[in-house]
Design a protein that fits this description.
The complex is a heterodimer.
Chain A: H1 13-21, E1 28-29, E2 32-33, H2 36-45, H3 63-75, H4 83-86, H5 92-103
Antiparallel strand pairs in A: 1-2
Helix pairs in contact in A: 1-5, 3-5
Chain B: H1 8-12, H2 17-20, E1 35-39, H3 43-55, E2 60-65, E3 69-71, H4 76-80, E4 90-92, H5 94-98, E5 102-105, E6 108-112, E7 117-120, E8 125-127, E9 130-133, E10 137-139, H6 163-173, E11 180-184, H7 195-210, E12 215-219, H8 228-238, E13 243-246, H9 248-251, E14 254-258, E15 263-266, E16 269-272, E17 275-278, E18 282-284, H10 286-290, E19 300-301, E20 315-317, E21 322-323, H11 331-350, E22 359-368, E23 371-381, E24 388-390, E25 396-397, H12 404-426
Parallel strand pairs in B: 1-2, 1-9, 2-5, 9-20, 11-12, 11-17, 12-13, 19-21
Antiparallel strand pairs in B: 3-4, 6-7, 7-8, 10-18, 14-15, 15-16, 22-23, 23-24, 23-25
The chains are: A mainly alpha, B alpha/beta.
Chain lengths: 110, 428
């Protein structure tokens, strides 16, 4: 795994990421997350992260791109309608866990 | 496990444990598989029942509900405004059956926390290891001057979706040209704080197309309301002069209601309408208060980590019937709480410490078919009190100002939000 922008303050997340992807905390079962925080995402984004409407599908996304997006929403560098109001309290660990979980799922039509 | 058995080490030691602890703990139950009874087939109950089966498949889950289908309050204002059909907001419990939830269409009439028994209308008695109670609200017609529940046949509340939604819609459709709709919302707390104002908006949307000289007067039980600035900005942009908001301090409260004359009397003057949407003050559903879970109040206080009632062990109360810290009484909140509550119940049944995770609420309102606004909140239970506090640096409403692109996007997202929320609760 590479860090695309090592100057960014959040580069440490990728170390956390590596730990998660190595299986240190596989906090989910095959049919859904076993984490309260991860479970918060699907109420808007659809069951198992597959959207049935205008919200983006988040299942099957590349985990680094996913984490990058959440970090950018958190630091305000990426504009949003609502995500910027939701991700502020998420820790790096929360973001890494959410990104790893949805990356592990099949996306729409898969 | 009871609350008193949680040790200080367990209470303090959980931070970060989701990433490091073995997650699939060995079930601690030596006896038969545990039985969880869920009371209520709305947002909280269905979310809890499905999550319970997903998180801990060995648990037997019985969901007790009043009717074979459920009509959602979210998006019922679109039905009233002629933008959706009733069939589009009504759902069956087929998917819950398929998940292995035992759905009983047999209303719960009593809850006995000491005996751990739920009694149904048929007389059947269900015993439980844990009960998740999400029965919603009941109306306090006794808090209104001179009317009882029967007045809803003429002055609909439409605050539980279904026949009442259709009644209000049809009254508005048959209103004379240039007529007046009165909406009378209660003081806080009540189900869906932005609901009356989305309703005024979508009634105005209908009237502006079919009855453009008509008026809407909101005779409110309070002085301020949810997303007020955004709603008023939208009303000015879309329906100038059609909606009149009369705050409590301008009318002094309801003094009388004349259902025959369609008149609302207040201390500072009367309001004559052709249609009156009378939304009464509210309380936790009677079954909750009859079981003693409201203490001396009208709502159930709970522990924000486990949702267990302060007044009873093994009973978890979620949704509109509970006071859930800073979370609003919304269907989306109830669904979020249902999932988090299922996680907590599974942990308690397995002898684990419940996770102190993050809960979110997003609530979209349509001011017009292509004009959406939202409010969001992020919550976590406090380490010392377990109160579900709103977290700093998060939440709030959509940006104010003339932002047509944002309003269009949020209208699109409102429809997507509803589609995914209902898919998670009722979809295959």
């Amino acid at each position: 795994m590479t860090c695309p922008d090592p100057d960014r303050a959040h580069h440490g997340i990728f170390a956390i990421f590596a730990a998660i992807l190595s299986g240190a905390g596989t906090a989910w079962a095959a049919d859904g997350p076993l984490s309260v925080t991860v479970d918060a995402c699907t109420t808007c984004h659809g069951p198992r992260g597959v959207s049935h409407g205008t919200m983006p599908t988040i299942a099957g996304m590349d985990s680094e791109a996913f984490a990058e997006a959440l970090l950018a929403f958190r630091d305000g560098s990426r504009e949003s309608t609502v995500m910027g109001r939701l991700v502020g309290p998420l820790s790096d660990e929360d973001i890494a866990e959410i990104a790893a979980y949805f990356a592990s799922l099949p996306g729409a039509g898969q | 496990m009871t609350r008193t058995e949680l040790t200080r080490r367990q209470a303090l030691g959980f931070a970060g444990a989701a990433l490091t602890a073995p997650v699939l703990a060995t079930p601690a139950m030596a006896q038969a598989d545990p039985h969880v009874v869920v009371i209520g087939g709305g947002f909280g109950g269905t979310a809890a029942a499905r999550a319970m089966r997903r998180i801990m498949p060995e648990v037997a889950v019985t969901l007790v509900t009043d009717a074979p289908t459920f009509a959602t309050c979210p998006f019922s204002n679109l039905v009233i405004g002629g933008l959706r059909d009733m069939s589009e907001i009504r759902f069956s419990y087929d998917a819950l059956h398929n998940d292995g939830v035992n759905v009983r269409v047999d209303p719960a009439v009593a809850l006995d926390p000491a005996g751990r028994i739920v009694t149904l209308h048929s007389g059947d008695r269900l015993s439980y290891d844990r009960a998740i109670v999400s029965p919603g609200i009941d109306f306090r017609y006794d808090a209104l001057p001179g009317v009882g529940p029967e007045v809803a046949d003429r002055l609909p509340h439409a605050w539980k979706a279904g026949a009442q939604t259709i009644l209000l819609r049809d009254q508005i459709r048959s209103m004379p040209q240039g007529g007046t709709v009165i909406i009378a919302p209660p003081d806080n707390p009540f189900r869906c704080p932005p609901g009356p104002y989305e309703r005024a908006s979508l009634i105005a949307s209908y009237l502006s197309r079919h009855n453009p000289a008509a008026k809407i007067i909101i005779v409110d039980g309070k002085d301020k309301f949810s997303k007020q600035g955004l709603f008023m900005e939208g009303w000015q942009a879309l329906y100038p002069g059609m909606i009149d908001f009369v705050p409590f301090s301008d009318h002094g409260g309801l003094k009388g209601i004349d259902a025959d004359a369609r008149r609302v009397e207040t201390y500072f003057g009367d309001f004559k309408g052709d249609v009156i949407n009378l939304i009464p003050p509210q309380q936790a559903a009677t079954i909750v208060l009859d079981a003693g879970l409201g203490g001396s109040g009208l709502w159930c206080e709970i522990d924000g980590l486990t949702f267990e009632a302060r007044e009873a062990e093994h009973v978890h109360v979620i949704g509109d019937a509970a006071i859930v810290g800073d979370m609003p009484k919304s269907g989306f909140s109830a669904a979020t709480q249902g999932k988090a509550c299922a996680h907590a119940v599974a942990a308690l049944l397995e002898g684990r410490e419940p996770q102190r995770g993050i809960l979110m609420n997003t609530c979209y309102s349509l001011v017009g078919p292509e004009y959406g606004i939202s409010v969001a909140g992020v919550y976590r239970s406090a380490q010392d009190t377990n109160r579900l506090d709103s977290l700093p640096g998060s939440g709030g409403t959509s940006a104010a100002g003339n932002l047509p692109e944002l309003r269009r996007d949020e209208a699109d997202y409102a429809r997507g939000w509803y589609a995914n929320l209902t898919q998670e609760l009722f979809g295959a």
